[in-house]
Amino acid sequence: MIGKGFYILLGKHWAIVNDFKLVFTKRIISFPKQKTLYSNARYFLPMGQFLLRCVNDGALQPQYALSCTHDHSLLRAEYRSRQIRPGDAPGIWRFLDWLPVEKAFPGFEAGPVTYKSRGLARELGLENLFIGFNGYWPEREARLPTCSFKDLEAAPTIERLRERGEKATLVLASAGNTARAFVHAASLAGWPLLLFVPEKALDRMWTVLPNGAGMVTMIAVRGDYYDAIVMAEKACSYPGFIPEGGARNIARRDGMGTVMLDAAFFVGRIPEHYFQAVGSGTGGISAWEAALRLRGDGRFGDNMPRLHLAQNIPNAPIFYQWKGLPAEPTRADMFDDVLFNRRPPYAIPGGVKDALLETGGDVYGITDAQAQQAKRLLEESEEIDILNAPAVAVAALCQAVQEDRVGPNETILLNITGGGLARMKEDYELQALPPLATVRSWEDAAELLEEKR
Ligand SMILES: Cc1ncc(COP(=O)(O)O)c(C=O)c1O
Ligand SMILES: [Zn+2]
Known about the structure:
- With 453 residues, this protein is an alpha/beta fold.
- The chain folds into three domains: 7-79, no CATH class; 113-147 and 251-425, Rossmann fold (3-Layer(aba) Sandwich), CATH 3.40.50; 151-248 and 429-452, Rossmann fold, CATH 3.40.50.
- The chain has 14 helices and 20 strands.
- A hairpin with a 5-residue loop joins strand 3 (50-54) and strand 4.
- Helix 6 packs across helix 8.
- It is globular.
């Protein structure tokens, strides 16, 4: 009760409360000896095990805020544990110290997997190539239930909502993999979810859960991902519906950041290079933030991994912005169509541009043909199928090797952000998830929602 009042108070009058930094509730725990990651200040942590701080002006924000009240910058969690101690919980929950949740979510036991590449490493002449395999490949203990690293974002997000205890409907727009991951996590938790999915992405909507999609309402949108985002934003203005937050959601970022954590434990250090295909670029921000925490931990080295982010041109706004090039006209049919996000969190403080600048990173523009070839190379050399998006990252790695941007002995982490779909079909029957309806406009969607209320 008192805790809840505390958050309501913080939400409304944060600027005043922030000046005092002390709040007298029974549920405040103090950690006076604990250094926070980014400052030496002594603060009192409300309930959980982290403080939420604006990366721009350093202002503390309420635990569930999505942006700074002063400047709309990204907020970052500062965990109580400066050194991470992997626990006994399964999968992703091993990294509970650096996740914004208090406990593991029953029924979700998967996590990131890292292994040392032999096949692709041999093909590219690399001695220390590590693959973060985020998909389904039980022979390597990889069991992400919807075959992509989006499962690592969805599970902590849903667990956090459960811990928050407010039964509002979570609203999400996605071009496929994210939607599938959230359907799985929300269904496991019995949490209500409203999804807007572009019609073209419907064939990616499936589940392996025996009871289907529980309390999920899926609306197909005749349009692209951007149209779906706009509808989701409008739906959030209804009472009882809350936005999931995208890149602003720390559960999403720190969930994805476990790929870097898992790699650091496997390799024994922070890798020197990190390759990932990006759409919003949230995975890149997450890798950078996880590396900052690992550096603060002190046991994994003090380097930052150079971020090598890749997009499929011409639908590649991050690539053009980073290179300072005029954007090419976009195309409807691309080798990859999950990486196209028209509004990536590029220039906001703590966003993609900062992540690239702070890590000495770069962005690659990959053609369909390059991605196709790279996909074949990875699948043949590592003997597992992958999604099209990570093939774009493999192509970037091939380019980096050709151009001597990575050395043959350097430590490289290649994030295969999705794969093993064919492997999963050997073990499971995938059930298609039908939409409630297909809408052309927000007015159609609003009518449907009114009916459901
Ligand atoms: C398989 C896969 N890889 C990579 C990405 C890019 O993710 P982000 O830009 O959020 O890091 C996505 C986004 O949907 C995806 O589905
Ligand atoms: Zn701020």
